[in-house]
Design a protein that fits this description.
- The chain has 552 residues and is an all-alpha fold.
- 64% of the residues lie in helices and 0% in strands.
- Helix 5 runs antiparallel to helix 8.
- The N terminus is likely disordered.
């Protein structure tokens, strides 16, 4: 339930009215200036293309390099979160050569050519085709594109139901929370089960790191430029992250009105005014320790993924020089995580019932902590190593009978369904599970989910699931897959802003959840496209310009 805050117009904080600083107005002006610069860059690029007889977006990059399997020959610095698995990321990762400034003509034309050349990194004429581009040929891991997009939509579905509750809430909470309400239904488990889809991204990140890292490490003779690798990763993901942080805390928080808007503003300002810097350093799962005090609370995933990325070079080096030691080390880290997670859940009275105090305890002590979430990432790396070995050398692929393959795939399907529907009994009889049951499920469900995805991925890459692979590997997923990082950042902004500007509480129903999730998905991916075109892709262009045609 939500208690309406009755306030006067003077309570609302604007860009100037009752503003405690000038930062909000500055960021609004900077955003408008950036959009204007993009427009100017696009116009100048169109003029230049037209003058040379070319078309918009023509000549926008160097030839793509692929290995023998059709995989993009991009090194360890491959994927910012939300980037597309190789080879679908080819257009997003290609290094574009600098264009040649106009030589000759009037001084004004020369100046225009120079400005156009410098601003081309912002040109929609060049960046939009790269967003929509598809690779020249399919690769064995293209199934990860569809897996990424479906997981993102599932996350938006779950957040559509949960995130409005603290802002404008529902006017019929009994239809959700009562014993006979939606919480005890199968369809509701499909909605709330979107929580585990985050572990799909941990799995994908680990898989790609291992799969592509092995190839790159071999090309480098067993050496990794760790500092440059980390710098590349930070530069690729932080600008979009920072842009979303500014948009959410300084702009969206001041645009709008309504009876719930003050609550919306206060929920942002109390979290964002002090500890925003910890997110840009990816320390926000520890500073502050309570995830409820983090500005963009949903960004806990990025903090974990960045830490896992920092650990990956050691695992890759062990795999290259001493594989047995690597497998033992990964198993040891996973086992330590299992023990610690189980202890934290049981000791602090954690539970999986999302509407209860036990879940609050679990969220505080274990949910967002990297030492509790790393097993899914390690499972992804394990399957990445296995798939790289089997795809690069078909003679190493195991010869399994149809019955054995069916058993593996059936076990994977059961694992996925169990992770989603086993909690149903604890939802029908709220918080009825004993501590040890909560501990076991919350400890092992996430690696089981990742392992099940690994089996399905392997079936697709090896051609054992042709129909499923045709669906997940369809080129139609590629543009959306490039936008999943931005959609992950932006979708809570969309959900919370519409809740804050609503004129009444929502009415909970299956129809509301489905229709609102569809609307939020469209809005989130639309904002993600803007973010990709004006921030993510230009940063990639600038990075490529700075290092020329030489790869990191």
């Amino acid at each position: 339930t939500v208690r309406l805050i009755v306030t006067g117009g003077d309570d609302r904080i604007g860009f100037v009215q009752r503003a405690t600083s000038g930062w909000a107005a500055f960021f609004l002006a900077a955003t408008m200036a950036l959009l204007l610069t993009v427009s100017v860059a696009t116009g100048l690029d169109l003029m230049g293309q037209g003058g040379s007889g070319g078309s918009c977006g023509g000549g926008g990059g160097a030839p793509r390099r692929h290995d023998g399997n059709g995989e993009l020959a991009e090194p360890l610095m491959q994927h910012a979160e939300g980037a597309v698995p190789a080879p679908a990321a080819a257009a997003a990762l290609v290094v574009a050569p600098a264009t040649t400034p106009y030589r000759g003509g009037s001084t004004s034309m020369t100046l225009t050519a120079v400005i156009s050349d410098k601003l081309k990194v912002l040109s929609l004429c060049r960046n939009l085709p790269k967003l929509l581009a598809s690779p020249g040929r399919a690769g064995p891991t293209d199934c990860l594109n569809g897996m990424r997009v479906v997981s993102m939509i599932w996350i938006i579905l779950g957040h559509t139901m949960m995130m409005p509750a603290p802002i404008n809430g529902y006017d019929n909470p009994e239809d959700l929370l009562a014993r006979w309400g939606a919480r005890g239904s199968m369809w509701f488990q499909l909605v709330i089960g979107g929580e585990i889809a985050v572990d799909s991204f941990f799995y994908l990140s680990g898989f790609l790191m291992a799969y592509l890292g092995v190839k790159d490490l071999e090309r480098r003779g067993g050496k990794i430029p760790v500092l440059r690798m980390v710098a590349h990763r930070y530069v690729r993901i932080t600008p979009a992250f920072a842009a979303t942080l500014v948009f959410y805390s300084e702009i969206a928080s001041r645009v709008g009105d309504g009876p719930f808007f003050i609550r919306f503003q206060r929920s942002i300002f109390r979290r964002c005014d002090k500890m925003w810097w910890s997110e840009l350093l990816y320390l926000h799962n520890f500073l502050p320790f309570d995830s409820d005090k983090v500005c963009m609370g949903w960004s806990w995933y990025l903090g974990n993924d960045f830490i896992f990325f920092l650990c990956s070079p050691a695992i890759l080096l062990l795999h290259h020089h001493c594989p047995r030691t690597m497998w033992l080390a990964m198993a040891g880290v996973a086992a330590a995580s299992f023990v610690l997670t189980f202890w934290l859940v049981v000791h602090h009275g954690g539970g999986l019932y999302i509407f209860g105090d036990t879940y609050t305890n679990y969220s505080l002590h274990a949910y967002s902590k990297p030492y509790c979430r790393i097993p899914a990432y390690l499972v992804g790396m394990a399957f990445g190593f296995i798939n790289e070995r089997w795809i690069s050398d078909e003679t190493r692929q195991p010869k399994l009978s149809p019955t054995t393959r069916a058993c593996y795939l059936s076990a994977a399907a059961v694992g996925l369904l169990a992770c989603v529907f086993v909690p149903l009994s604890d939802y029908r009889d709220a918080e009825s599970w004993p501590p040890w049951a909560n501990g076991l499920f919350l400890t092992f469900s996430r690696p089981v989910w990742a392992a099940s995805l690994g089996v399905i991925t392997t079936g697709c890459t090896l051609g054992k699931l042709p129909k499923l692979n045709a669906f997940l590997a369809s080129p139609r997923w590629i543009p959306l897959a490039r936008l999943t990082f931005g959609a992950y950042l932006m979708h809570p902004v969309v959900i919370k802003w519409f809740a804050g500007t609503a004129t009444a509480s929502y009415h909970f129903s299956m129809h509301y959840v489905a229709s609102s999730a569809l609307f939020n998905t469209v809005c989130a991916f639309a904002l993600a496209a803007v973010l990709w075109l004006v921030v993510e892709r230009p940063v990639m262009n600038v990075e490529s310009e700075l290092r020329g045609s030489r790869r990191l």
